[in-house]
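Supplementary Methods S3. Input chains for the assembly prediction are listed below.
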Amino acid sequence: MNLQGFFKSVFGALLCLGFATAMPSARAELIGTDQVAQDAPGRDKAVIDNFISRAEVQKKMQALGLGVVITAQRIALLNDSEARALAEKINSLPAGGNFSSLTNSDFIIILLSAILLVLIL
Amino acid sequence: MPFLFAGCAALPSAPTTSWPSTLPKTAFVRGMPFFPQEQYQCGPATLATTLRFSGADVTPDALVPQVYTPGLKGSLQLDLVGAARRAGRIPYRIAPTLTALFEELSAGNPVLVLQDLGLLTQEWHYAVAVGYDRDTEMITLQSGDLPALQMSWARFDKTWISGKRWGIVTLTPDRIPASATEEEYLKQVAALDSVSSGLAGIAYQTSLTRWPDSLVALMGLGNLAYAAGRYDQAVKYFLQASTAHPNAGDAFNNLAQTYLRQGQRGLAYTVIERALALGGSHVSIYRKTRDEVEAEASQP
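Predicted structure tokens for the full assembly:
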């Protein structure tokens, strides 16, 4: 398995933890405690998932000295509102979230300010 | 001292005008461990301090891979919060006021704070607040390699406000921060739930001692009981939640699901109809539950 595939499987598995109480089985539709606490659907994690699983994002995280597994482990410890704040930040970025037109350093700054701002709210 | 907080009217920080009657004039947290930080390592050092004080067996070195980002030469708040959860502690962000900070210190809870020590450029720094004194208007911090740095409230607040007065306490699940609100605390417990449901269970129980009708705590306990297959207990918690919060559709939905598991289709149907009548942001899930109830009912 290549690194990206490994990242995806680790990240996917970790992400699913957040939904474990919401879906204890394929059948039941229980409202998870985190959903009650946040009073919002937890779907924004999908935005983060997509964002983080992009190859160029992973390259940048590695440029920061963070391995993919470490990054996945750290992100999995976020709750939905933290993830949602990050998603909103990402959605509000210029150029409709088209990061490919940005230079590497622009990209790193945007990514980091997005992450930094999550908890300075 | 109005000059201190000019332009910050929306965030009244200092308890100078009306000192809360319950707040002691001075407080100092005793028995603090101290880890002098190495270069750029204020994040691991300060987090290790508050976690170790709470009884967790951690060292700054062990926290480095969890919180430190080499390319930033620093640690993100996000990662401190995550690492606290991983250590089984509840990272609670205090309200952005000196009053809240002092409340925690007077309750014996050190507060990990974010400061901007830069003069012209930003220079982020984490420190641990351990004491304050009203007469001298000084705060005591563990900062860098200083175990007891004294700083005036005025100077401290200037460094604190740049990071929106960010500060966390990291307590065990059997203790609630002195300044905690029900809503914010239970959000943090629910976040711990996906990392360690056992510890979250303790925190939900602890929450009920302060907020006996807490919807999130009752739902959390109900969900944990349900996940463990203890349906009688889950029914008890969901019933309690729906009685205390008759407009909480989520409680009725989960109660209906539990009744369904117990084979109580009639009760499940009555209860899910109630959830659907209430509506709310999770109504699409309530509809799925009703579909499941109806599917069960149509089986021989």
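The interface with chain B takes residues 17-18, 20-21, 24, 27-41, 63-66, 70, 73-75, 77-79, 81-82, 108, 112, 115-116, 118-121 of chain A (CB under 8 Å). Residues 104-119 of chain A form the longest helix (16 residues).
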